[in-house]
Amino acid sequence: MAIRVFRKGFCGPRMVVLGICFLLWSSGLLFAEKVRYVIDGDTFILANQQRVRMIGINAPEVSHRKYGKQGQKFGEESRKYLKRFIEGKDVRLEEGEEPFDRFGRRLSYVYLPDGTFVNRQMVEKGYAEVFRKFPFQYKKDFLESERKAQSAKLGMWSEKPKSFWERFCESWGNPEGRK
User: Fold this and answer.
1) 118/85 Cα distance (integer angstroms)
2) Mean pLDDT for all residues in the chain
3) What would the mean pLDDT of 144-158 be, rounded to a whole number?
4) Closest CA to 129 of 67, 176, 72, 59
5) So what's the pLDDT on residue 7?
6) For the whole model, what pTM was predicted?
7) CB distance 38 to 88 below 8 Å
8) Sign, Cα dihedral of 55, 58, 62, 64
């Protein structure tokens, strides 16, 4: 007794709909979410008001007047790069091991419809560094991308690192040092 795999009419409209759904799914458009606003180089808000924190990267902080926080060097450049990259666009979000962080932000790997891996791109271009505190799926790959960005002096790696004394004087608010 043979099992009939193809029935008459099976390859008609049902297969066309399934094929279209597969193409949309594989391109990331079926489950795409619109980015409404970029907060900084590793966090953004979706159209449904959900905050998303990108897994595996840590971008310099931006100034927050509301909270009285001063931004870090290269924070604004990192935010602007991510804004040009994803704000107002559809993205596909892929969950990691933990769905949310302690602040209630959704933790995700972010992909553009063309397949561009946004988290990796931020590290490759020097707009974010690898978040080393927790393990994650692409950590080895991200560390290699960061090393290459540092070697090529891209983004935040374009300037020579500040000496201990320069950082110390900055933290005390007197670039010439205490007198």
Assistant:
1) 8
2) 82
3) 94
4) 59
5) 54
6) 0.71
7) no
8) positive
Element at 126 (helix H, strand E): none
Closest CA to 47 of 8, 93, 100, 88: 88
- Tokens found for residue 12: 């008609």
Q: Which residues of 81-101 are buried (b: 16+ CB within 10 A; e: fewer)?
A: bbbebbbeeebbbeeeeeeee
pLDDT tens-digit map of 16-42: 666 555 554 444 444 689 999 999 999
The DSSP secondary-structure symbol of 42 reads: T
What span, in angstroms and rounded, lies between the C-alpha atoms of 97 and 61? 25
Question: How far apart, in whole angstroms, are the C-alpha atoms of residue 81 and residue 32?
Answer: 21
Alpha-carbon gap, residue 106 to 43, rounded angstroms: 10
Per-residue burial over 121-135, b if 16 or more Cβ lie within 10 Å, else e, is bbbbbbbbbbbeeee
- Distance of alpha carbon 134 from alpha carbon 164, whole angstroms: 27
pLDDT digits (tens, 9 = 90+) for 40-74: 999 999 999 999 999 999 999 887 677 667 767 88
- What topology is assigned to 31-171 in CATH? OB fold (Dihydrolipoamide Acetyltransferase, E2P) (2.40.50)
Tokens of 100: 């949310």
